[in-house]
Amino acid sequence: MNNKLVLETVNNLESAFAGESMANRKYLYFAKQCRKLGAIEIAEVFEKTAEQETAHAHGHLELLFPPKTLTIENMLQMAIDGETHEYTEMYPNFRHTALQEQNSSAVKEFDEQIEESKEHAQTFNTLLTKAAKKFGALTKVEERHANRYQDTLNNIKKG
Ligand SMILES: [Fe+2]
Ligand SMILES: [Fe+2]
Questions:
Q1: Which ligand is closest to the CA of 22, given by its number?
Q2: Residues whose beta carbons lie less than 5 angstroms from ion ligand 1
Q3: 112 Cα: distance to centroid of ligand 2 (angstroms)
Q4: Alpha-carbon dihedral of residues 15, 16, 19, 23, nearest 10 degrees?
Q5: Whole-model pTM?
Q6: CB-CB contact of 115 with 95 (8 Å)
Q7: DSSP, residue by residue, 98-150
Q8: What class is the 3-64 domain?
Q9: From the CA of 116, which ligand is nearest?
Q10: Which ligand is closest to the CA of 54, given by its number?
Q11: d(CA 135, CA 71)
Q12: How do residues 126-150 score in pLDDT, each as one tens digit?
């Protein structure tokens, strides 16, 4: 397999996953607004379509994170990494820009998200500590599989 093609496909799967995920949340939000406006049937179509978008997003995830490569620990770790990125880098940067642009409602929103992401990271971290104690011995082999998968991905990304 051509590495460049593999890399591009991984990126495309990530973009497709992002798009389908956003469509899911957007349609649920639209459904909520439609209900407020009394358009119940349209709301129901948005809700039904949102469910299908979730299925599409999960389809992409199965290729990006094959179930065989997932362990309790590496799933919790990925969640911690994502939440940590949010509260240490992404939202602080967004907050900085919002301040410069004097968008006070965005500053407030980002501050709230910084707190929530921190809480989420802590919750996952507590679970990881517990899981490491409980499943530690059992998942050594799976962990090795997951690491090998990660190495392969990294090599692909390096080209
Ligand atoms: Fe879709
Ligand atoms: Fe979060």
A1: 1
A2: 20, 53, 56
A3: 11
A4: -170
A5: 0.77
A6: no
A7: HHHTT-HHHHHHHHHHHHHHHHHHHHHHHHHHHHHHHHTTTTHHHHHHHHHHH
A8: mainly alpha
A9: 2
A10: 1
A11: 10
A12: 999 999 888 765 555 555 555 655 5
Domain boundaries along the sequence of the chain: 3-64, 67-158
93 pLDDT band (50/70/90 cuts)? Answer: very high
Q: For residues 71 and 154, what is the distance between their CA atoms, to the nearest angstrom? A: 18
For the CA of 79, the nearest ligand: 2
- Cα–ligand 1 centroid distance for 9 (angstroms): 17
Q: In which residue are the tokens 């971290």 written?
A: 125
What are the residues whose beta carbons fall under 8 Å from the beta carbon of 108, sequence distance 6 or more? Answer: none
Centroid of ligand 1 to alpha carbon of 127 (angstroms): 32
Q: What is the C-alpha separation between 110 and 45, in angstroms, rounded?
A: 32
Distance 83 CA to ligand 2 centre (A): 6
